[in-house]
Design goal:
By secondary structure, the protein is α/β, with parallel strands linked by helices. It has a single domain, classed as Acetylglutamate kinase-like (Carbamate kinase, 3-Layer(aba) Sandwich). Helices cover about 40% and strands about 25% of the residues. The protein contains nine helices and 18 strands. A hairpin with a 5-residue loop joins β11 and β12. α6 runs parallel beside α8. The longest helix has 25 residues. It is globular.
């Protein structure tokens, strides 16, 4: 397409999304590749400059694992969740807040935007409770495992986010939380992003990961648009499996909570965020009950 054609295709979407809030969950390989991260951040700054209110929630699992191994501590997981003892929580806080969050804020500033980095325990943004023991199969019997400082979200208090958005800042949120007694907890970034999207009344929730979207195995291509019921069926049938399950579940939870549109896209390809939002075909999977073309 010619440049002018691309811009004219984008125009109606820019008009529709102006003033709307979009929550972007940033994860996958982009978290460890500065070049990829820089491209994503420049896209986010562009969105902000054309009047779209952007919120970033980031993960950091691979970097936490890398840091733990460098410190001589072996990470342990149960049902995809990291067992978080005192030392692991300290490492998670150091990596998520001290490294990744500050790096994203710096990249936004370098690209000409304004950002404020916070974690879920700042201003009591994310209130959680300690997760119950998990039952796992070990040989021929079931054991209950204490995951340590891992939280389940009880409440989102978005006052600080609304204040930042009203003053044209991009909030950058590390997935940590606090319980009602003031104790720190580690939380799943996908889940946090979905709940924050609900609390803000976001127009879209976009999960950026390492896959193109939800795959149609028969056609060997990405589903471009599906309903929540269809997505749930793909989980039940095993088409959506392993690490994609919590991502799709977070998306479904956001839709159930009132977010009209949710997307899963590959965050490793340049400007996929822009292409997903501003072209009719898009590049990933959009999940919605709406019948219009957004």
């Amino acid at each position: 397409m010619k440049r002018e054609d691309v811009l004219m295709e984008a125009l109606p979407y820019i008009q529709k999304f102006h003033g709307k809030t979009i929550v972007i969950k940033l994860g996958g390989h982009a978290m460890v590749d500065t070049c990829i991260m820089d491209t994503v951040i420049r896209d986010v700054v562009l969105l902000q400059l054309i009047g779209i209110r952007c919120v970033i929630v980031h993960g950091g699992g691979p970097e936490i694992t890398e840091k733990m191994k460098a410190l001589g501590k072996e990470p342990r997981f149960v049902a995809g969740l990291r067992i978080t003892d005192d030392d692991t929580l300290e490492v998670a806080q150091m990596v998520l807040v001290g490294k990744i969050n500050s790096k994203i804020v710096s990249l936004i500033s370098r690209a000409g935007g304004q950002a404020v980095g916070i974690s879920g325990n700042d201003a009591n943004l994310v209130i959680a409770r300690k997760m119950d023991r998990k039952k796992i199969q070990v040989d021929n019997h079931v054991e209950e495992v204490d995951l340590g400082h891992v939280g389940e979200i009880e409440e989102i208090r978005p006052v600080v986010l609304n204040t930042l958005l009203e003053n044209e800042f991009i909030p950058v949120i590390a997935p940590l939380a606090i319980d009602r007694h003031g104790n720190d907890l580690n939380i799943n970034a996908d889940t946090a992003a979905g709940e924050i999207a609900i609390a803000l009344g976001a127009y879209k929730f976009i999960s950026m990961t390492d896959v193109e979207g939800i795959m149609d195995r028969d056609r060997r291509e990405v589903f471009r648009r599906i309903t929540p019921a269809e997505a749930e069926g793909l989980i039940s049938s095993g088409v959506v499996s392993e690490g994609m399950i919590p991502k799709v579940q977070a998306v479904l939870r956001s839709l159930e909570g009132g977010v009209p549109y949710a997307h899963i896209i590959n965050g490793n390809l340049a400007h996929n965020l822009i292409l997903e939002l501003f072209t009719a075909k898009g590049v990933g999977t959009m999940i919605t009950d709406r019948s219009d073309d957004e």
